[in-house]
Amino acid sequence: MSRREYLVAVIRLFLAQSGAPARASRDDWALAQALYARGVDFDRFSHAIRLAALRRLSRVGTPTPVRSLAYYCQVLDQLSPDELESGYVDYVAFRYQEITRTDARLYRQNHALPDRR
Description:
The radius of gyration is 15 Å and the shape is globular. By secondary structure, the protein is mainly alpha-helical. Helix 1 packs across helix 2. The protein has 5 helices and no strands.
């Protein structure tokens, strides 16, 4: 993956998350560049994002918006060897797909309701 492809993939994944801002900031782009310079594998980074999203969306109450890519980098830096085992990575990917599919369905349902003003 080229540098540009990596940066775009990281930013797109970040912006696709529930509660993410509409646009990436300069700091987000700089952080994505730092990840590339550190040699962080994109698959490892996407696992960190999925894991962080699951943690956020599984909490009781409304999750607070994530305004910065740095939130996910903290999870990336704290990944334990157990959290990187292939079985666990597959489980997180499966649960992430379930939750994001449900989240998207609820979003469409809530925004499809007629305005009752």
